[in-house]
Amino acid sequence: MDRTLTKTRTIFNQLIIRHYGNKVGIIGVPFDKGQEKKGVAQGPKAIREANLIDELKKLELDVRDYGDIHYKINNKNDIKNMIHLNHVASCTSSLSEQIRQVLRDNRQILTIGGDHSVSIGSIDGHVKEKQDVAVIWVDAHADLNTNKTSESGNVHGMPVALLTSELADYWPYLPGMDWQMPMLSIRNVAYIGLRSVDRYERLVIEKFGITAYGMEDIERYGIHHVIHMALNKIDPHNSKSLHVSFDIDSLDPLEAPSTGTPVRGGLSLREGIHLMEEIHRTSRLNAIDLVEVNPDIGSKQDVKFTVQAAIHIIQAALGYTRRGLKVPEGVTDLPLQTFR
Question: Which CDD domains does the record associate with it (predicted)?
Fold first, then answer.
């Protein structure tokens, strides 16, 4: 091979790495105690086995897999209408500490659930480490119930109410949750994709003026304008560290059937990808949760569709663009044989 061509290729590769060399840390949370359907704990394994790390390395990302969260139950006392609170408290406490460590390692965080209760830990760790955080909660459901309003007692329907300071007075003392103080303002949370909201949750959204865009808003304005309206509401000065908590059931079940609480009429995969592309372009996205993939639900084809959708969402959040990676400045005049 011509030495000049070899040198040109080396420079090109170095520039690509420099341009796209973000550092990412992956945390798996094989946790299913926030709800009652078995299988969601296998979500991290299924997503990893779909070549997640190889797909991310194609984006020239520095990827480190921190493994799965393991925990010991710190408190055996539960309270009324919060199923497995002791497990939720112990798991999310361990996750919060791991999140802080990954951020100290100067890496973006990808947390793979597990059910949506794991976001209690991921967001808590993010807020403790970065303080000024804005959250985009992409979900068919508001997850705003308390133990007094929940019909099921499933904690995966309560994380936003647990995390936000304005709702702290609506809770009794929660054994095992002393490590978690609600420090996130509800003004810093925006919902996208809502279409199954309980009456109490709607009351809370209206009372506190929470930024919330349902599917009818997406139909009216389009996903592009909705994400920018949401960001302008919760981060008007473009200064906050961004956290996206993405429940796979935000997608329509035709796109992602293998999930525990599907609701028809959701986001298309294309809309979900565009949402994540736009948030990535802010350059302030520091944490992503991808939750509620359940490989025990549906056929093998259903599971494959759902896991593939999850991979596409993650890739978009971490820099993949459907136009292809942009050639960095300074290498636009490469000879055609460079690419042969």
Answer: Arginase
Q: Which of 53, 57, 65 is nearest to 25 (CA)?
A: 65
178 labeled binding residue: no
Q: Which residue carries 């992956």 as its tokens?
A: 26
Enumerate residues 6+ apart whose C-beta is below 8 A from 205.
142, 144, 191, 197, 212
pLDDT for res 11: 43
> What's the token pair of residue 228?
């920018």
Q: Is residue 335 scored above 80 in pLDDT?
A: no
124 is in an annotated binding site: no
Residue in 137, 138, 177, 144 with CA at minimum distance from that of residue 159: 144
249 labeled binding residue: yes
Strands 189-194 and 108-113: unpaired
Q: Is 172 exposed, middle or buried (0-12, 13-18, 19+ CB in 10 A)?
A: exposed
Question: Is the pLDDT at 20 greater than 60, yes or no?
Answer: no
DSSP 184-238: B-GGGEEEEEE-B--HHHHHHHHHHT-EEEEHHHHHHH-HHHHHHHHHHHH-TTS
Scanning the structure block, which residue is given the tokens 């929470």?
Answer: 210
| pLDDT band with cut points at 50, 70 and 90 for residue 334 | low
Copy the structure tokens of residue 280.
């990535």
Q: Which fold has domain 22-318?
A: Arginase; Chain A (3.40.800)
Write out the catalytic residue numbers: 116, 139, 141, 143, 156, 247, 249, 292
